[in-house]
Amino acid sequence: MIEETIISCIIIYMVLRLFITQNRLERMPYLNVINFGVAAIITLKNPSPLGAITSMVYFILATVGANAIAFTISKVKEIEG
Amino acid sequence: MNIEFIYAAAILMIVGALGGVLQTRPIDKFLMLAVLGDGLISIVATFGYLDVAMASSFMTFVGIIIMMIGLVRVLEIRKMRGEIG
After folding, report:
1. Distance (Å, rounded) from C-alpha B34 to C-alpha B48?
2. N or C: which end of chain B has fewer CB within 10 A?
3. pLDDT digit string (tens) for B13-51?
4. pTM of the predicted model, to two decimals?
């Protein structure tokens, strides 16, 4: 159970930093850390083939979504500035 | 001392909802919406409903993409009318 505690502490610390930070580009690595931790916890809590498939699907979709958010940040900066 | 992951997922959802209310720029709201979706998926997967977690992962992804496309379109139309920039 020590791994669950470690990942929970990392996720809580990262979500607090993501809430406090004001710069928009500095927020994206924190979101990626949260995604990695959630994908790890899904497999740790459900040690079965369906758990592995769920973790893979979540990991791929979250990575593509974070890329979409970063692309939109650069697009909005290009439009506004 | 042992911290359960359910508390971390609840903190994810609470911080996501508070950030969606309190932050002012649209992209910050979308990022906090992504955090809220992460909390939802993790708290569903912790209780063992893996198919629901898979489906809600796909739905939050598609919703974020569609709202991003809408935001970029709105800003382009505003710039074309000369309201910003």
Report:
1. 21
2. N
3. 999 999 889 988 888 888 898 899 999 999 999 998 999
4. 0.89
Q: Which residue of B has its CA nearest to A38?
A: B42
CB contact under 8 A, A4 and B12: no
pLDDT above 70 for A77? yes
* A46 interfacial to chain B (CB closer than 8 Å): yes
CB proximity A50 to B under 8 Å = yes
Q: Which tokens is B68 given?
A: 């991003």
B48: left (phi over 0), alpha (psi -120 to 50) or beta: left
Q: Closest by alpha carbon to A25, among A69, A60, A64?
A: A69
| Residue in B13, B21, B61 to test binding to A, most A beta-carbons within 10 Å | B61
The answer to whether the complex's ipTM is over 0.95 is no
| Angstrom distance (rounded) from CA B10 to CA B19 | 14
- Angstrom distances, CA of residue A25 to CA of A11, A74, A77, A79, B48: 19, 9, 11, 16, 34
A7, A35, A45, A58: which to substitute to probe chain B, counting the most B Cβ within 10 Å? Answer: A58
Tokens (6 digits) for A42:
């899904």
Q: Does A70 lie at the interface with B, CB-CB under 8 angstroms? A: no
